[in-house]
Amino acid sequence: MLNEFLSHLFPRVVLKRNLTISYTFCLGGLAFSAFLLLLCSGMLLLFYYQPGPEKAYGSILLLESSVWGGRYLRSLHRLCSHLLLVLLMLHTLRVVLTGAYQKPRQLNWVIGCLLLLLCVFEAYTGYLLPMDQLALWATQTGMELLATFPFGPLLRGILVPDGIGHPMSLLRFYALHIMLVPLSVLGLSFLHFYRIRKNKGVLPYL
Known about the structure:
Helix content: 55-70%
Number of domains: 1
Strand content: under 5%
Number of helices: 8
Distance between the termini: 16 Å
Mean pLDDT: 89
Structural class: mainly alpha
Largest sheet: none
Order of helices and strands: HHHHHHHH
């Protein structure tokens, strides 16, 4: 799978017509590039962020006011998250409109939908981390909506066992945001690219 992923990123040959700008705009590749930027900027933010209710907001203020390039780094992380979701939505729309979800690509369509849902959830878990008023109220709204779905109260109890913004809840959102969800997205991305190569979807001559 890793070899197929690398071959997808660095193909042996590319036809000239595949280098022209088309209706696809390489949306999947652009989305993955935005995800890589999120990983890099997020790892740098880890050096200053403190996942505690009393310290989280202060660490954000310190980052933006006293760390060289800190405000730029946080803004880059936030803008890349918005860009990732927009690109994924456009990529999904393109797949639907062109019928690229049909046989033999049904499995890859399911993988792509899972990637979209995971990235939305990743953005949601990151929203609470600054621990400002916007973060608290947005997370509260999300949890109230979740409680209306089947098994929603159970999931809500897992995500926020001691209330929104409390130590255990913040720690769970933090663990999901920096480790569990990104690793899942990365693994599914490898599988997604592998299936593209296996189905000869974008480069049938390889």
